[in-house]
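ugh ok fine here u go
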Amino acid sequence: MARKRRKYAVSGAEQGMQDFKAAVMKNEGYAVDPGRPDDVKYEVARELGIPLERGYNGSLDTESAGQVGGKIGGTMVRELIRMAQEQLAKREQ
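structure:
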């Protein structure tokens, strides 16, 4: 089954989000191919001991899939919060 295409509220934001994901995960120590930042999920899955493979993963339970996505998304959210706090601190000066 093919992955659903994400719909971003801002037209053209997809490339920026992919670049952001690559930068954040690379900063976390993962080997990220900037041309294929979504592939970092396989490295994260290996680290977590989750048998995520390319192609069909119908036997993978939702908890395991969520652990992989949560690690990536959570890291991105933490970085966005850090960036926002940094910008707010600069405004207050």
